[in-house]
Design brief:
The chain is mostly helical. It is built from ten helices and two strands; from the N terminus they run αααααααββααα. The chain has two domains: 176 residues, Up-down Bundle (Growth Hormone, Chain: A), CATH 1.20.1250.20; 61 residues, no CATH class. Helix 3 packs parallel to helix 5 and helix 4 runs antiparallel to helix 5.
Length: 257
């Protein structure tokens, strides 16, 4: 039963990415109503999305590092709160710069905190069906525009863009926070096994190609592995298998990279 809990995390991850990415990517439907009410240019409003993508990429490194230290659940909880706060401030903004900082800065920063922690957690729960699990989590972000954007359009027509954005902030935060509580670290059976004499051993469930590698070897050639993997496969290398390769690389020091 504990092993099957990984699929619960997959479902939670798909829902979280759908809500978070949908809330961020719904900005295009706000453009015209916002421009009509505030007098801001469409280019200025769209600039918030550009800022958001830049901040999301940079913040992803910081969130990933923080995930290694405190785990995925606290990171997702912090990001969900940041997402709701950013959307709320953006919905009340009367100045374009304030809107760009709130939407591009806070919402963008929160967007970088969902994929990496959730992917790392899901990979740790699976030795089999890993690619499928990663794909299902990614599916949440893929279907987000088809789910959240039409809903935002209806809300804008019913209550205006400010209240629609504020409602999105509240709903996304209220749904993500309890869902994030389902996220748990992988059980010990998936990580390092301990032999009878107390020394670390290679888990029986770990594939042979993912056995321990000396830490020195990782230091010498670790960061050259990903380009090498990409050469024979190109863009056809499955996302889940690439993540698994990175995870195997990190096991040399007893830590996931």
């Amino acid at each position: 039963m504990e092993r099957n809990y990984g699929w619960v995390i997959v479902g939670a991850g798909a829902l979280i990415t759908c809500l978070a990415m949908g809330a961020m990517f719904a900005l295009p439907v706000y453009l015209q109503p916002m421009a009509d009410e505030t007098g801001w240019t469409r280019a200025g409003i769209s600039g918030a999305m550009t800022i958001g993508f830049i901040v999301m990429g940079v913040a992803g490194f910081l969130w990933g590092t923080l995930t290694d230290r405190i785990g995925a659940r606290p990171v997702v909880l912090i990001a969900a709160t940041t997402l709701g706060l950013g959307l709320f401030i953006a919905s009340r903004a009367n100045d374009l710069l304030v809107f760009q900082i709130a939407y591009g800065g806070l919402v963008g920063a929160s967007g970088g905190a969902f994929f990496a922690p959730l992917m790392a957690t899901v990979i740790g729960w699976f030795d089999k069906h890993r690619s499928l699990a990663v794909s299902l989590v990614s599916l949440g972000g893929g279907v987000a525009p088809m789910v959240i954007t039409p809903l935002a359009t209806v809300l804008i027509e019913q209550m205006g863009w400010r209240n629609a954005m504020m409602t999105t902030a509240v709903v996304a935060t209220v749904l993500i926070l309890p869902t994030a509580m389902l996220i748990r670290r992988p059980p010990a059976a998936v990580g390092e096994a301990v032999a009878a004499d107390g020394t670390a051993a290679v888990p029986a469930e770990r594939p042979l190609h993912c056995q321990r590698v000396p830490q020195a070897a990782i230091h010498r050639a670790g960061w050259r592995v990903l380009p090498v993997l990409r050469r024979p496969f190109g863009p056809d290398l499955p996302h889940g298998e690439l993540c698994h390769a990175v995870r195997c690389l990190g096991t040399g020091g007893g830590q996931h990279l």
